[in-house]
Amino acid sequence: MVSHKIFNDWKGAFPFLKEYTKSTLYLRAGIVMLGLRLESSNFDSNTYLIYLECRSLWENKNSLCESFVFYYYLRSKGNIQFWIFDNHHDFYFPKVLQRVKDQFGGILEEKIRLSSLFNVINQITVSFDCNILSIFEFELALSIYLNDPEMEARIWRQIDMKFRHFKKKDFLIIHGITMEEWKQDLRVRMSDREALMAQVEKNLESRRIRNLNEAQFVIDDFVLDSEQPKSMSRRWKEFRENFRNTRIGLWRQLIAKINGEEYP
């Protein structure tokens, strides 16, 4: 946990965010809670990290630990995580604050434009530092919440497009179900808007959640990750990720063969 002074500095910099725990500052927006977490490093108690996190309000989860949609560490312009020394906080705070505003600031305010939200989501998916299925589910739940059939259709096209790059065997091993089973389950859960909204209202029975400041989504033109033109650096990242996944799959096949097991 960071010091009281460090926490209060960040709290003062984002007045629309309210203290949710001693290390988090949140707002709520429709079907999610969004905000910042300040976390002491596990490797050095004299440093802390800051990251954006998003938690679901449309699901019936037993604990908040299960409700993560995504979290994303603050990064420097060189795409390196910021590690902030506690005793240098006053010196680095203005610079780090500006970086937070540049990366996430557009979705930590009273009005959240969809273009700002999807710009952040696209940053996260490009980094591969996320559970992509949770991102898909959030995007789809958001389209249901906003009652926007065109947006919903765009997201389903994105899911189908992305799934063409997944390996069926690896997907089954990692998630325990097939791609089609996952999509069918998602269709069923997203088919009842009233049930989704009822679950959000149920989660808002928590006074701690209800007392958060409520932001509004502003509908404007936005671009999904799959609709972005791909730069050479993006293509290279995807190549490396696909290569890594292929290598993992080959190792699993080899280990299964050595153990006399059948690889799914």
Briefly, what is this?
The protein has 264 residues and is of the alpha+beta class.
Describe the structure.
The protein is 49% helix and 16% strand. It has one domain (4-228). It has 10 helices and 8 strands. The radius of gyration is 20 Å and the shape is globular. The protein has helices at residues 4-13, 89-104, 114-127, 132-145, 149-163, 168-175, 179-189, 193-203, 207-210, 232-258; strands at 18-21, 24-29, 32-40, 47-56, 68-73, 84-85, 111-113, 216-218. Strand 1 and strand 2 form a beta hairpin. The protein is of the alpha+beta class. The protein starts with a helix and ends in a 6-residue tail after the last helix. The strands form 2 sheets. Strands 1, 2, 3, 4, 5 and 6 form a 6-stranded antiparallel beta sheet that branches. Strands 7-8 form a two-stranded parallel ribbon.
Helical percentage: 40-55%
- Give the H and E element order: HEEEEEEHEHHHHHHHEH
Helix vs. strand class? alpha+beta
The proportion of strand residues reads 15-25%
Average pLDDT works out at 85
Could you describe the largest sheet, including whether it forms a barrel?
Answer: 6 strands, antiparallel
Q: Helical segment tally? A: 10
Distance between the termini: 43 Å
Q: Mind telling me the C-alpha Rg?
A: 20 Å
- What is the number of independent domains? 1
Outline the low-pLDDT stretches: none
The shape is globular
Beta-strand segment tally: 8
